[in-house]
Amino acid sequence: MNILNELNKYISQDDWWMLHIFIIIFAALIIDFFQKRILNKVQARLKSTKTAWDDALIHAVRKPLSLLIWIYGLSFALDIINVPQTQTLREVIIIICAAWVAVRFIKFAEKNILHQQQIKGKPIDKSTADAISQLLRVTVIITSFLVALQTMGFNISAILAFGGIGGIAIGFAAKDLLSNFFGGLMIYLDRPFAIGDWIRSPDKEIEGTVEKIGWRLTVIRTFDKRPLYIPNSVFASIAVENPSRMTNRRIYETIGIRYDDVKLLPVIVDEVRAMLQSHKEIDTDNTLMVNFNKFSESTLDFFIYTFTKTTDWQHYHHVKQDVLFKINDIIAKHGADIAFPTSTLHIPKGVPVFNEPGERV
Question: What is the rounded CA–CA span in Å between residue 94 and residue 100?
Answer without folding.
Answer: 10
